[in-house]
Amino acid sequence: MGITGLFRRLGEILVRERLTTPDVVEQALVRARATGERVGEALVSMGAVKDDDVLRALAQQQNLPYLNRDELPAPLPIVKNLSPKYLRQYAVCPVSVEGNVLTVATADPLNPIIVDDLAQSTGLVVKVCVSSADAIVEAIDRTYDGVATPLQRIVEGMEDDRGGEGDEDVNQLRDMAFEAPVVRLVNLLIENAITSEASDIHIEPFEDTLRIRYRIDGVLFDQESPPRRLQAAVTSRIKLMAEMNIAERRLPQDGRIRVTLHNRRVDIRTSTIPTVHGESIVMRLLDRQSVFLELEKLGFSPAMLPRFEGLIKRPHGIVLVTGPTGSGKSTTLAAMLGWINENRACHIVTIEDPIEYVHIHKMSAINQREVGDDTRSFERALRSVLREDPDVLLVGEMRDQDSIQTTLTIAETGHLVFATLHTNDTATALDRLVDVFPTDRQEQIRVQLASTLLGVIAQRLVPKVDNGMVAAFEVMFANHAVRNLVRVGRTAQIRNVILTGHREGMQTLEMDLTRLVAQGVISHEDAASRAAVPREVRPQSANLALVANGPVGSFMPPGASPGDHFQKE
User: Is the pTM value of this prediction over 0.85?
Assistant: First the structure.
């Protein structure tokens, strides 16, 4: 339906409701063409109808509910990432949040940008109602100017004078930790994080503020925070819940909290670190009911998937998965083990800190061990793991000389090993393993690594243009050239091997980011911000030639023509 047809239909509704006449609608159409107004705006400007009449007709035209002033909730639901300033600017307000569906009221239902922006900001599916701009702004003012948030209501009833940082004795700290408002406040922080599907809670003290941040899909987002004066009370409550020593504030501590919310059991690994302004706390949320993705749903292209499956079918060797915190490494490893569990009859042993995904026995038998519960350390677990006769071993992280040496030896002796590292790309991961050792041992480690390495996957999470996150991968398979470079310590040249090894299935991170941009999955700006070499990420408008059935994100070499492995976009 064209714009004029849409205008005429709106006019027809107003005429049918006896709010105006056909002649007036025609005059409004003429005015709208001349001024660029919408027909409803033209009718209101002419004094022919009221603004509410147009909005009701518009709701009827678009098959949307219309909410009167009294039908908007008071107070409005508080939705993360939607500030009062944003709501006032766009005259939009949340009406309800049910599951992953956010219902909003707007005075401009024909504006698609608002819905897209809300979905992007909240990560929710957005449904629209229609209401007047005056009613919406009034509801926003009523909520944010006159009604306190749940956190504000808790804080309002708490005492102001709690002493300076470090002035409290152990008994006072313990008393504060058991105060009902403090208990409710910490419970609220945890509940909001779980509801937001956050992976971590960061509680960071500064000179004048106490900063609360949630890590969601790998990105840290600021949250509403309690006043700085409550730091000691909040810290003591969390340390008490995690069975830490609340009197010890000069040394790092680790602990664990177990909570159940809406029949979901969540384990919270908690760590504290002393800082100049007090103890900083990080809480890692682990949902024991998390369902890991199947290998096919990780985001590999159809061409990459069989090559990747071939990698994990190998009987022995080591596969490394690397990336920054929150990049999805655990999800990728869980999918790898899930594929093996579905397709191979073997014995899998994992050593993790912590266990993030719980596997159920299928074709394989899986024994998962958690550092701190089932074993004291990675090193102790690795030394004893061969007595369990595993075919496949997952090592949560190789952190020191002993764990790296033992893991490489296990891979040398006929076992398939998966391990994680925190590095930015595939080549740096190999350097990290070698650089841990003194110079006189590095040659030996390079030889071991060259003989056992199967491949390295480096990954990032990138926001999708519509909603959610998607993983982008750098993939390096250990061919003859890679092994030689590792053996002689020239890992800086591995990127050149990846760039020229696309026919073997290799790809740089920039190649995969370009593929996702070309498919319209992610924006070029977000892709470039995740790339090690931003200039290699090409915009969607570029005349790219992408591999049709070859590796992900590869480009057509100069002089090549479409066919065989290549296809024009």
Answer: no
